[in-house]
Design brief:
Layout: H1 3-20, E1 26-30, H2 37-41, E2 56-57, E3 64-67, H3 74-79, E4 84-88, E5 114-117, E6 126-128, H4 133-136, H5 144-164, E7 168-172, H6 181-191, E8 196-198, H7 208-211, H8 217-221, E9 224-228, H9 241-248, E10 252-255, E11 273-274, H10 280-292, H11 294-301, H12 309-331
Parallel strand pairs: 1-2, 1-3, 3-4, 4-5, 5-6, 7-8, 7-9, 9-10, 10-11
Length: 335
């Protein structure tokens, strides 16, 4: 079935569904990277609005519409008839690497009811909700005890994996290196004597991510001591899942980004090996030191990667987000 027929079939099915239950809340996603319908049906941000019943994903008559950056969607956001309009970006909208995102630098604040991103913006309808939180939790967690349990689990797993599962030196999984930073870190790691495996399109030399690990990035990274995981741009507050994926697999991150001060309230900076463009030899010497001294490496990975305050940070973030989103839904008569 070609794309146009598939689209027509979806619209027809959604229209009949609307006619059968016109009062049911519906949710539409515009400008999002293609994912399964199940992903959108269980979308991370939907529970913040406290709907009594989970909205049905539909292309027809949405009561809530989420917008993101994968297409030029400003006009669609302007013309949307949804009662609630939400913008979320998991990309840096200030990046010279992906200039197409620059049109979203305003986070559509004048067009949507609530907006989420990495930036630190003082606006009544904006919340800084960085993408990495979605990689630690499958859904918003409102119990401080459960958040603490998850943070403790991550800390314990980091040390356990770092000390017991490692059979290879260093990994990188990337599609591109448009700003050259991955090449710089790669060269530094090689000069320090590390053997580097690249499972992505960039500098590809390893097929095992697909052939042996069924494209599970987490399982693949579990075998490595280090991973090259810089951000695509260096912007204050822009911290993606890359750094946290390293920690979840017990890898020491070779990192660059967020002015080399990523999430100071949440992450123990001592478990990260930073790359400084002005002082590239520092990373090389640090890696040589860790490679030649097993006890020094053990001392590094026996630290907790996440600070105690991570619990309060995530709990307070979720409470604030739920309070705002629930108030919006109530004001629109949807709950």
């Amino acid at each position: 079935m070609n794309a146009k027929l598939k689209r027509l079939k979806t619209i027809t099915e959604d229209a009949f569904s609307f006619l059968a239950a016109p009062r049911q809340n519906r949710v539409r996603f515009t400008g999002y990277y293609p994912e399964s319908k199940g992903y959108f049906q269980d979308y991370y941000f939907t529970p913040f609005f406290s709907f009594k019943q989970k909205p049905v994903v539909s292309s027809v008559a949405p009561s809530i519409e989420f917008f993101s950056v994968w297409n030029s969607i400003r006009k669609k956001a302007q013309s949307s008839g949804a009662k609630i309009k939400v913008f979320f970006t998991g990309e840096c909208v200030h990046s010279d690497v992906f200039k197409e995102y620059a049109e979203f630098e305003d986070h559509l604040l004048d067009l949507v009811d609530v907006s989420f991103g990495f930036d630190k913006i003082d606006a009544a309808n904006y919340i800084r909700y960085p993408l990495w939180v979605l990689y630690l939790f499958d859904k918003p967690e409102f119990s401080k005890d459960k958040i603490k349990h998850r943070i403790d689990e991550i800390n314990q797993d980091f040390t356990r994996k770092a000390l017991s599962l490692k059979t290879k030196d260093c990994a990188v999984i990337a599609r591109h290196d448009k700003n050259g930073i991955r090449t710089s870190i790669w060269n530094a790691a090689q000069e320090a004597g590390l053997i580097i495996y690249s499972a992505g399109a960039w500098n590809h030399n390893d097929d095992s991510l697909w052939n042996e690990f069924a494209n599970s990035k987490k399982d693949y990274l579990d075998q490595f001591k280090y991973t090259i995981c810089p951000e695509n741009c260096d912007y204050d507050g822009y911290v993606t899942e890359k750094l946290f994926q390293a920690l979840l697999s017990g890898c020491v991150p070779l990192y660059w980004g967020s002015l080399n001060k990523p999430e100071l309230e949440v992450i123990n900076q001592d478990v990260i090996l930073f790359y400084d463009k002005s002082k590239p030899d520092e990373l090389i010497e640090r890696l040589k030191e860790l490679q030649s001294n097993e006890k020094l490496f053990e001392k590094l990975v026996c630290q907790n990667p996440l600070k105690d305050y991570a619990v309060d940070y995530i709990y307070e973030l979720n409470q604030k987000t739920k309070e705002l989103c629930t108030a919006i839904a109530a004001s629109k008569g949807l709950i």
